[in-house]
Backbone:
């Protein structure tokens, strides 16, 4: 049914859960699994703040760009460990730079992704929203099946 599964991750709890579910689906369908983190272009306050929070939690703190790169690597490393714990050793990880939603959509299109599994929310702190702006946009625009995880 599904051959190429993409899990976009931002280090949030819902994204971790998305990794777990994507692993189970990958096993179920014998699909390839790719974990993608998108670093927002320099100068964006939103992701930069989120990544900084994450970096502080993980005790990595140097320059702005170092923080962003380290946080990105950490997010992907954690996802890979999590996938290993779910029996998925063969996971591809990828970092891209750009607008998160547009970059996820472009990646999915270019790489023949047929299922995207993502968190319904991420690191954002707008309480009360069911869907974040990234998951909302990806679910609405993607041409493939999307699963949003709560
Ligand atoms: N920079 C990113 N790179 C990859 N995936 C992301 C990124 N930001 C968000 N996502 C994905 O989208 C989901 C929802 O996040 P988002 O829409 O940003 O919600 P929020 O507004 O709560 O941060 C996350 O759980 C994750 O799966
Ligand atoms: Mg977000």
Residues:
């Amino acid at each position: 049914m599904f051959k190429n599964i993409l899990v976009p991750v931002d280090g949030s709890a819902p994204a971790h859960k998305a990794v777990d579910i994507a692993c189970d689906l990958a096993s179920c369908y014998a699909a390839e699994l790719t974990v993608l983190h998108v670093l927002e272009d320099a100068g964006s306050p939103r992701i930069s703040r989120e990544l900084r929070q994450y970096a502080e939690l993980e005790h990595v703190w140097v320059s702005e760009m170092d923080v962003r790169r380290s946080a990105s690597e950490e997010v992907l490393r954690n996802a890979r460990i999590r996938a290993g714990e779910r029996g998925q050793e063969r996971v591809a990880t990828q970092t891209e730079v750009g607008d998160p939603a547009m970059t996820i959509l472009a990646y999915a299109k270019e790489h023949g992704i047929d299922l995207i599994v993502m968190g319904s929310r991420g690191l954002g702190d707008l309480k009360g929203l069911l869907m974040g702006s990234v998951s909302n946009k990806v679910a609405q625009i993607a041409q493939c099946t999307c699963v949003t995880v709560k």
